[in-house]
Amino acid sequence: MKLVNKFSGCYANVERRMKSGKTRKDMLTEAKELYKVTFELSFNLDHCWGILKDTPKWQATQQENKAQNKKCKQSGAALPSSDIPSSTPATSAIEVEDEESEASRSVLGNSRSKGQKAAKRKQTEEISLDKLVSMQKDLIEISCDRLSLMKAGAQSTLDDAIMSKDLTLLDAESRAYYQRKKRVIIARELQEEKEREEKEKKEKEKKEVTKKERKAKEEKERQAKEEQNQKETKNNAEEDEDVDEDNDQEVEQDEHKEEVVECEE
């Protein structure tokens, strides 16, 4: 995407300097030459450029970049000057040390900033390359599908022409040729029909297997949930029995205490 963006800048530059009589093809050739001279690299992403250049999102991005560049060029302003006060040798030494320290920090900061920018730029280029590869795969897949449809359409048209051919006015050799062609077409269509039926059968069986697997999974989950509920019910019952036993023990203890009191009296 970044390479296409650079080429877009070269193309825009050539377009601004376009002279009468030049065609779009001439401009494209000149833009490629400018790109090669500027970046020391040949531009070979014509298919991506042809797709992106007419998309609204890409055009909006290019207009935004142009506006930002124009704004940056017009926004340069000089800083106001100020009088420099005189200083003593002691303060001058301190200022020198501060300046050296600040310069060191500035150098380290610039180095770190450059490293971070380089890493970020590399990461961005890798992401852009991945997107470009993905886009190329999608384009290839779309082209293959389109080619298959065109081929199927052309074959169907040719078959229809042969099957509707009137053989009564042909000589024996031509008639035999077209009869053989018709037999081939019929055999191919029968084979295609057979393959289509087998494919539909496999898809149906696959759906049935998936349906059975889903039902088995649901049944397994239901059984697990039922077992969990039974386990919780059993635990609750055991807890209730323990509580009843504790209550019985407390009652017995109370009765025993009452008997002891009566005996003492």
UniProtKB/TrEMBL annotation:
Biased composition regions of type Acidic residues, renumbered to the chain: 238-253
Domain No apical meristem-associated C-terminal: 43-185
InterPro entries in UniProt: NAM-associated_C
Segments of this protein annotated with the region Disordered: 60-125, 190-265
Superkingdom of origin organism: Eukaryota
Amino acid composition bias (Basic and acidic residues), ranges on this chain: 190-237, 254-265
Name this protein carries in UniProt: No apical meristem-associated C-terminal domain-containing protein
Protein source organism: Puccinia graminis f. sp. tritici
